[in-house]
Amino acid sequence: MRAAATQGCNVFQGSESRFPASLSDNPSLFAAAVDFDLRLPDLSAFPREEVGARLVNHFLTRWEDDDILKALLRSAASNEGAAERVRSIFAEQVAPAIAALCRDPKSAPIRAGLVSSQILGFALGRYILRLPPIVTMRREAILEWLGPTIQRYICG
């Protein structure tokens, strides 16, 4: 898996004109990025007051256990093709999960965008940039800090 993640960094980096050719040179990485499943839990199965912390906990597990997801985020910071893939993953998977819990359908896209930006920003700081204060945080502390923020974004 680590080899695929390392290849992922190389595949998504470089000039925009090389992006499609690089993907065709590495079909397994392309398939992993195209078919990426965040494996989101059914948030409606949890008590409403816990969904923020549950979603943060889920994403911590995903980021910690998935080198492809980290490679995709790293690549998205500098490559428009990879950025579009991350946007589509979050639009297709996170947005519907948030919309299902949101009492005001008109605010669901904004709420999903805020949740996504918080999750992606935290992941960038912790797993890609490795910012010391964030890298050293225990899971419980992360849930205490981020859980209420995500909760407010989802439920208002």
Short description:
By secondary structure, this protein is an all-alpha fold. Helix content is 74%, strand content 0%.
Characterise the protein shown here:
It is a single chain. This protein is mainly alpha-helical and 156 residues long. The protein has a single domain, classed as Orthogonal Bundle (Tetracycline Repressor, domain 2), CATH 1.10.357.10. Helices cover 74% and strands 0% of the residues. It has helices at residues 2-12, 19-25, 27-34, 51-65, 67-76, 80-101, 108-128, 132-135, 139-155. Helix 1 packs parallel to helix 5 and helix 5 packs across helix 6. The termini are far apart.
Keyphrases for this structure?
about 160 residues; mainly alpha; about 0% strand; globular
Arithmetic mean of pLDDT? 83
CATH topology: Tetracycline Repressor, domain 2
Helix content estimate:
over 70%
Tell me the name of the CATH homologous superfamily: Tetracycline Repressor, domain 2
What is the CATH first-level class name?
A: Mainly Alpha
Gyration radius over CA: 16 Å
Beta percentage is under 5%
Encode the helix/strand succession as letters.
HHHHHHHHH
The total strand number stands at 0
What is the first-to-last residue Cα distance?
38 Å
Supply the number of structural domains.
1
Which overall shape is indicated by the principal axes computed on the Cα atoms? globular
Low-confidence stretches: 1-25
CATH architecture level-2 label: Orthogonal Bundle
Helix count, DSSP H or I runs of 4 or more residues: 9
Sheet having the most strands: none
**Helix/strand structural class:** mainly alpha
